[in-house]
Q: What sequence folds into this?
């Protein structure tokens, strides 16, 4: 019994040292050990209780020391739980501060690289990727690499991620993320990973989360610890999931603000163009008019010019096909060719061809002039 007492008390002392190291060490690196330590503390407590309940019962001195050891284990478990909670709250606070910085971004082009850098910084990752989903493929739109990483691996990783549309399909990890709509820790030898990507990036595993601001998965966040080679934990997974939720809302907000700004600029440009054209028309006609009769004739000619358009049942339909009309309506909102292609499920080349046809039919030199003339024709019907 004396041997059991010494071994158990020595174990309590060892566990106390390990708990102290976790409490004083870096939070993210110790997240995995905290779970293992909690199990070790519970197991040691169970062994002490078994010795105390054994027959014959231990002597009074042994029983007293073991009871003190049991009390110490309970205290250590309490401190470990408090530490785990504080670590998670601290991580969430860092993430919210990082997301708050991103609110200053006014365009998607500005937001994506800034968000990748914030993800890596506030969640203690060495590499962070923001990917876009397009149909049954995905590709990186922003890649952040911590300073000091192997430059050749970093360059190869970024070139591959930015230049390759990686397919989605059965048994592929990112497909599982779309279906399950949750973040996940992925080991390097997971059969669902893209083997070419894992080889190029020399990854030892990563965490991934879908981005779904309006309930539809539009992309992914992926990150790893290539430089430190530390093991990723459930805390990393939860941090990534928290960041992904906040980023999704910020992305949607930025897209809407950017489109609103484009629409305002487009409308302002269209009305300014219309105003210039009307002013020029008035100046030209005034210069040509020499008498009240001539001015009356000018007014009569203007009425003749605009009467066929106003009298037509649908002047837009007489000029544009249904597809061209839909495209010019999206042009009015400020949508780019790529956005129009996504909305109408067309290729960008097809959209460009339709846009050229619209410019030709509306006798416009550019998109702004085409929008102005379309609005003028459409408003003449009302």
A:
């Amino acid at each position: 019994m004396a041997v059991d007492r010494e071994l158990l008390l020595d174990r309590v002392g060892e566990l106390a040292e390990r708990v102290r190291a976790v409490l004083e060490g870096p939070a993210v690196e110790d997240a995995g050990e905290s779970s293992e330590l909690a199990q070790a503390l519970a197991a040691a407590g169970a062994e002490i209780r078994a010795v105390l309940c054994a027959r014959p019962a231990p002597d009074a001195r042994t029983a007293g020391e073991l009871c003190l050891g049991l009390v110490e284990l309970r205290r250590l478990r309490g401190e470990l739980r408090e530490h785990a909670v504080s670590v998670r709250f601290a991580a969430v606070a860092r993430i919210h501060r990082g997301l708050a910085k991103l609110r200053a971004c006014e365009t998607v082009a500005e937001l994506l690289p800034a968000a990748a850098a914030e993800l890596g910084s506030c969640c203690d990752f060495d590499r962070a990727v923001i990917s876009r989903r397009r149909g049954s493929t995905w590709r990186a739109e922003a890649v952040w690499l911590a300073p000091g990483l192997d430059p050749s691996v970093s360059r190869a990783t970024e070139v591959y991620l930015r230049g390759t549309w990686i397919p989605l399909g059965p048994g592929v990890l990112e497909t599982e993320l779309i279906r399950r709509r949750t973040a996940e820790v992925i080991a390097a030898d997971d059969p669902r990973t893209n083997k070419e990507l894992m080889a190029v990036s020399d990854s030892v595993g990563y965490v991934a989360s879908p981005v779904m601001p309006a309930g539809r998965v539009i992309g992914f966040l992926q990150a790893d610890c290539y430089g430190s080679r530390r093991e990723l934990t459930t805390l990393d997974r939860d941090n990534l999931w928290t960041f992904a939720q906040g980023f999704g809302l910020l992305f949607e907000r930025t897209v809407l603000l950017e489109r609103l700004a484009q629409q305002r600029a487009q409308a302002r440009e269209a009305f300014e163009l219309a105003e210039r054209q009307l002013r020029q028309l008035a100046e030209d006609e005034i210069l040509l008019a020499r008498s009240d009769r001539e001015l009356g004739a000018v007014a009569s000619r203007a009425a003749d010019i605009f009467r066929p358009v106003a009298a037509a049942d649908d002047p837009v339909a007489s000029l544009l096909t249904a597809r061209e009309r839909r495209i010019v309506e999206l042009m009015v909102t400020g949508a780019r060719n790529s956005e129009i292609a996504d909305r109408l499920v067309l290729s960008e080349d097809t959209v460009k061809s339709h846009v050229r046809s619209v410019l030709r039919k509306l006798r416009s030199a550019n998109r702004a002039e085409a929008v102005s003339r379309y609005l003028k024709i459409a408003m003449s019907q009302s």
Summary: The beta strands are 127-134, 137-145, 166-167, 184-187, 205-211, 219-224. The longest strand covers residues 137-145.
